Amino acid sequence: MIENKVIFSGQIKALTEKNIKSNDLGTFLTAWIDQRVPSRLPNGDVDRVKYVTGYQIVVKDRKIVDTIIALDKNRNGVEPRSAWVTITGAKGDYIIKSKVEGGKDTFVPQVEVYDLEVL
Predict the structure, then answer these.
(1) C-alpha to C-alpha distance for 61 and 67, rounded to whole angstroms
(2) I want to staple 82 with a disulfide (CB 3.0 to 4.6 A). Which of 12, 23, 109, 113 is the partner?
(3) How far from 36 is each of 11, 60, 77, 85, CA to CA, in Å?
(4) What is the 3-state secondary structure (H, E, C) of 87-118?
C-alpha cells in the first residue's frame, strides 16, 4: 500500500546529464514535472501560460526511467517539456539544507514515481 499516494498529470522538464545517476543499486532519475495551462482571452486567444503546480520526481524503476529518457529524446531539443504524462507515486518533501549558518532550509514537494502513463 502506498502512503501519501498522488496521481498527477503534467509535463516533464527537459533533462540534463545531472538528472540521471547510476550506482551499485542501479540507475535512477530525478526531474521536475509541472502543470502549465494557457490563460485565454474572451475571444479564445491565448493570453499567457499560467503555472499551476509542480513536483520534484524521483524514479527508481528502470522501465519508467527508460520511458522518460525516450520522451526527452522525442522533444527533438526544441520543446522545453515532454509530452503530457500521468504519474502515480508517494508524495513527500525533499529538504534543501541552507548553506548559510542560521538560514532556513527549503522544503520542495517530491514524488517517488511508481507508475507512469504517457497521454
Answers:
(1) 10
(2) 12
(3) 8, 26, 19, 13
(4) EEEEEEEEEECCCCCCCCCEEEEEEEEEEEEE
CB 61 within 8 A of CB 28: no
Measure the CA–CA gap between 35 and 9, rounded to whole angstroms.
7
Q: Are 116 and 65 in contact (CB under 8 A)?
A: no
Contacts of 106 (CB under 8 A, 6+ apart): 95, 96, 98
Q: What is the DSSP string of 32-66?
A: EEEEEEEEE-TTS-EEEEEEEEEEEEEE--HHHHH
56 to 9, 46, 113: CA distances (angstroms)? 13, 27, 10
Is 83 in contact with 9 (CB distance < 8 Å)?
no
CA gap 17, 74 in Å, rounded: 16
**Hey, what's the cell of 42?**
474572451
pTM of this prediction exceeds 0.90: no
